[in-house]
Amino acid sequence: MQRGRMIYDTIVEYRFKKSKGMSIGRANIVTTETSAMDIQNYDTKCLHYVKSEIFGVKSKGYSENNFWFTKIISQNPISRSFALLEEFDEISGKWIPIR
Question: What letter would DSSP give residue 66?
Fold first, then answer.
């Protein structure tokens, strides 16, 4: 059985390295992922969007690996997706995203 994945309005905290120091910030994004690690690894559009807002696309900082989503501050469901699906695993009893 399949169903659409839930879309969330999410406020995340991120860290980035800029001029030999670590800085912390917050961003408001829309994603289907439920953890900061999943946003970092799977939702690359959100990662590149927030990174471009901080560094600028043409800067050297944008091309380096110096940006991390650390935690989710709040997450509110918006609706279900029609394009992104998840499938029910009968063995574990959980809904697993289809990537």
Answer: -
